[in-house]
Design a protein that fits this description.
The protein is mainly α. The protein is about 65% helix and about 0% strand. The protein has one domain. The protein has six helices and no strands. Helix 2 (about 30-40) runs antiparallel to helix 3 (about 45-55). It is globular. The chain starts with a helix and ends in an 8-residue tail after the last helix.
Length: about 110
């Protein structure tokens, strides 16, 4: 969804920043956003990262980011729980990004 929305809006984005913190994501507040996501999903300093994101982008961005994290977690758990495979169309559309961020190393068959 991030790939499609950034392409649709014509926004610059370097997806390698998702897995490599030395790379600038090219999105306003992107490093702080990634830090917040990492803290939420990895059990880090969520309060500090939330405050940092709020300072950079405002409280609405914190709410949006939190809702997005929750939604993706819900969708992923449903897909995993039901054994739903990734569709061929989705695989084709996401090939470049999966390669850029090394995501295929996690692909289970």
């Amino acid at each position: 969804m991030l790939r499609a929305s950034s392409e649709n809006r014509g926004d610059a984005l370097d997806p390698r920043a998702i897995t490599d913190p030395s790379i600038d994501p090219l999105v306003e507040g992107g490093s702080r956003l990634i830090g917040f996501v990492d803290a939420v999903l990895g059990g880090g300093n969520v309060d500090g990262r939330r405050a940092s994101l709020g300072t950079a982008l405002g409280s609405d961005a914190v709410v949006d980011a939190s809702a997005t994290i929750a939604n993706f977690e819900m969708m992923n758990r449903i897909a995993q729980g039901t054994g739903m495979p990734v569709g061929k169309g989705s695989l084709a559309q996401t090939e470049e990004w999966r390669s850029l961020i090394g995501l295929d190393r996690y692909r289970h068959r």
